[in-house]
Amino acid sequence: MIKIGIIGGTGYTGVELLRLLAAHPQADLRVITSRGEAGKKVADLFPNLRGHVKLAFTEPDTKALAGCDVVFSATPNGVAMTHARELLKAGVKLIDLAADFRLKDPALWEKWYGVPHACPELLEEAVYGLPEVNREKIREARLVANPGCYPTAVQLGFLPLLENGLVDVQHLIADAKSGVSGAGRKAETHLLFSEAADTMKAYGVAGHRHWPEIRQGLEAVLGKSVGLTFVPHLTPMIRGIHATLYARLTLPGADLQSLYEQRYANEPFVDVMPAGSHPETRSVRVSNVCRIAVHRPQGGDTVVVLSVIDNLVKGAAGQAVQNMNILFGLDERAGLRQAGVLP
């Protein structure tokens, strides 16, 4: 059994992580911390976990966490980097679900997140936890930077095109929509039901923190810079991401359907749908699957890729569990075999 600790398990990502680990055949959940909820039983805060999780929240304690094999940090940005040195020194593997270790350049981190990085020497060591790209590096990692939700959907959609040199990489467009849970479990006016329901809006058009993360991931695969326009939107649904991706083909004769099917044939959590399909966010709800469809409208030189995920699962907690499975040599699907929920 894998001894597991969680730092900060009171947000949507944290409760999703708890739900998945409670059903994982090799997970032994030992510690879950929360300064604000210390002493309260997990099941009292999250009644869906009654009968599944018996632990209570505790104050953060490095000594208790150091007794674990792996620690998940499900905290706001800027917290994991304050624990990382001590945990790694104690021999604990760390999977950070926030953004602390996603960007390799500390100056870029400070620009987008507003504070200096607390342990910049660990940025280069951290492995970006997108299994479909970095599986072998993840196996040997001590520190895994779990990708963001938008970056997961966008990168998986674009990857086959970039890997095969089929598109103009200086003019990529990602038009992405997210459910309200992507903003986290917090009280803010724009997230109230009466504010977010029955409407849809773009945000962060001038610059969103996931833009440099997406570019970094695509450039790592391509080996050169890319030009990316990324526009996120808030939609009136609880969970899910739908990314519509556009690129101009430089090799119009390519068989795109076969290309995608072959690229993801052995990936347990990427489902390339039949030609002409339009994947729905509800088809991946509570599952760790990314569903993709590729189109070439009117047979022209524009390729349109549709990519959908559950932002809390493949976009966060599920991908983190997938990374844990890889780290400990388990079947990647362990604890993640759930089908999507309909209706």
TrEMBL record:
GO terms for molecular function: N-acetyl-gamma-glutamyl-phosphate reductase activity; NAD binding; NADP+ binding. This is N-acetyl-gamma-glutamyl-phosphate reductase. Gene3D superfamilies: Dihydrodipicolinate Reductase, domain 2, NAD(P)-binding Rossmann-like Domain. Pathway: Amino-acid biosynthesis; L-arginine biosynthesis; N(2)-acetyl-L-ornithine from L-glutamate: step 3/4. GO terms for biological process: L-arginine biosynthetic process. Its main location: cytoplasm. Belongs to the NAGSA dehydrogenase family. Type 1 subfamily. Coiled coil: none annotated. Residues 3-141 form the Semialdehyde dehydrogenase NAD-binding domain. The active site is at 149. It catalyses: N-acetyl-L-glutamate 5-semialdehyde + phosphate + NADP(+) = N-acetyl-L-glutamyl 5-phosphate + NADPH + H(+). It holds the Pfam family Semialdhyde_dhC_1. It comes from the Bacteria. It is an enzyme of class 1 (oxidoreductase). Catalyzes the NADPH-dependent reduction of N-acetyl-5-glutamyl phosphate to yield N-acetyl-L-glutamate 5-semialdehyde. SMART domains: Semialdhyde_dh (SM00859). It is found in: Cytoplasm. The keyword Secreted does not apply. GO terms for cellular component: cytoplasm.
